[in-house]
Task: structure prediction
Amino acid sequence: MKVTRREFLKSSLAGGLTVAVSATPLGYTIVNAAEKPASFDPNVWVRITSDNRITITIGNSEMGQGVLTAQSMIIADELEADWKQIRIEQGAARDGFKSPILGGQITVGSGSLRGFYQPLRKAGAAARAMLVKAAADTWGVPESECKAELGVVSHAGSKRRLTYGKLSAKAAKLPVPQDPPLKQESEFRYIGKTMPRVDVPQKVSGKAVYGLDVDVKGMHYSVIARPPAYGAKPLAFDRAAAEQVEGVVKVVPIPMGIAVCASSFEAALKGREALKVNWSKGAIPDMDNASIEKSMLADLDRPGAKVQDTGDARKALAASSFNIEATYFVPFVAHATMEPMNCTAHVTADRCDVWAPVQSQTASLGIASKISGLPPDKVNIHTTFLGCGLGRRGKPDFVAEAVMIAKALGKPIKHVWTREEDIKYDSFRSAMAHRIKAGIDAGGQLTAWSHKASSVSILKGVRPEAIKDGIDAYCLWGLWDEPNSPHWNNRIQYEIPNLYIEFLMSDLPMPVAPWRSVQNACNAFAIECFMDELAQAAGKDPLEFRLQSLMNNLRARRVLETVAEKAGWGKLPAKGEGRGIAQHACFGSWMAEVVELSVDRASGKIKVHRVVAAVDCGPVINPGPLVEQVESAIIEALSTALMEEVRFANGGVASANFRDYPIIRMSDVPEIEVYAVKSTERMGGIGELGVPPLAPALANAFFNATGARVRRIPLTPERVLEALKKA
Amino acid sequence: MLSLSVNGKKVRLDVPSDASLLWVIRDHLKLTGTKYGCGIGECGACTVHVNGKAARACGMTVADVKGKKVVTIEGLPATHPVKQAWIQEQVVQCGYCQPGVMMQVASLISESRKPDPERIIEQMDNVICRCGTHLRMKKGIRTAVRMTRGRQA
Result:
């Protein structure tokens, strides 16, 4: 899976051309590995060997989003490779794979293509230029007379041809161009055309290796007995009883709980049962869903950290011809990736190996190095396929546990979270409470917006130093963009002359983490539901009302106009149906969605019939997977909007498995239409932004169908019936 | 010693008779295409065929399949319409749940001489896909049924 420095040097000695890009947030350099520059870290991007194979090594994690395919398409296109020549390797954890925009080797923030698009093109183009020069030198003709096409360089005048494989050794001796010419869009061979994903066949065969499928000789299993409430500590446990269970080899207390190591998963579970841990009460023993919601809504009555203050919102609100106020709440939701958290680790005196489905190789490497006590170059992170990511696997807590246990055991350990642990001990998408007050002038134009938002801090757990003046920027994505953010344009899109934003950091104890689109989803819910309320108050059509505050935001206008046209916005919905619209921008892309639904007034069940989406993410690499990603985001967001809410009780988490944490099933999934508008603007991300507009478009469609406003998700039948009763 | 029939082969195993079929398949037979998803039969990621019918391996012991024929995703031929349709329609994303989903679809198709894709889709509410590939699964099911009927003709 991974290329070590030694293997790499061997392959470069064996001949062949290896071109790598060393990317940092400051820029990137293209390197010819044969030159063996002192600072070169062996992160092979593309290697052309004499057997005419082209091996592309990719440092991002594959979780079904198609990154292996899309990044390879970019290199192959500029390289003019034949797709059949391409082999793909999963890269190790190395500095050279750090994202030029995110600063780490991490697959988050919809950043893998927008971050690597240009460096990958340059790498492919540099290799192609070197191969062409090698051919021209061989034949003694000018480079301009040689043409590279599908893995072959040819000279038309003399009809001579040489394959890339044959040219690779000679090309390796040439200096690498730092600014090779790139193709014109019209010359693209792969970019912009749907290519089948390279990970699909092995996944269909059942042979794809996920973290849980890793098999290391002499491997044991471990599970952890964890506290039933936040802050609970083990008072006593029966180590001897656990160790007497057949197959159990060791009990290892660690800060997260008490680990039981055994020869099989079942024996580890039995050993854990036998521990019979007596836990102390949690930090907030009576915490439950009602108290959580109350606490976060109460936050909105406190003064918070001032995030933005443009114009004079207070004065403008007073001067507006009318103003309205509304409060929204989005509950905690779990990641619940189909592959539960797991990590296999082996720590010896001079080496630490970690096999795991991780989204952050950088964070995994750092924590494994710290816990094993070995320097990073003795730590090997082997990234497997990820059984879904959703942001959860960017947090390396499961890696930390595995390395601790493996170190104590001295043998390879496969550390597994049961489904119950995966849900109970998840780092959730934080709940958010919002209160917005906005003013409209006599012409029905939005003039002032005052917004208070409360969330549990995401940064507190991962980068506390990034919290500035009480502001957690991650919690505000979609509402406010921190200065110089790599996730540009994660702010409220509307042109509001007087805008005031205040943030309240909730002190609730549950760990939280990014969840596909991060808090964009929660912020968009409040903003876009409120825009609908404002439109209604102003007596305007929801689309028209939005457009009049997006006069200069052409990309937002275009996705709104496209989705409206495709969904038939001007026409009345079918009898008994409602239609709602919402837009959002994040990670450099724009999205608008229209939801069509009907409501069974007797049962309170919502039936979503159709979702239409329009996206502008700039240039598209692989159109098929783009549609898959948007469908996927919409279906996941619909799941959160209709049914997902983590249950808390007695100071801990009550939800435990799919029976009490329901996830959307086939019969609730609507038809989805996705339209990507043609765009040559700067490339944005595509993996996440399907999520944010969905829940507000759904709530707005619910209002359109029933006349009842809902300001809290999920729209379970009980909540729907309650809303209908009030309306 | 216990004897099992898996993917057409007899295998002898030194495991207790109450050992979980799922973990025996994964750890002893090294057939890791059968996944652990929930352990309570809610998600379908561990679906295998027992005597040709879809069954959740997580809720069964090895004793439950004594004398019966077990087939896992690895035992479903590469030429099987479901596998081919799943590639053609690019159904999988993360793919973790899909071996189980495919095994269930294969079983449902085989239940009828004239399988009806819409009827099969109606029976897919007992599996979970967190990636939201449901629309692709529908396409995959329709294509697999079409391929199956084409081969019968």
About this structure: Chain B has two domains: 2-75, 81-152. Strands of chain B lie at 2-6, 9-13, 47-50, 53-56, 69-71. Chain B touches chain A through 55 residues (CB under 8 Å).
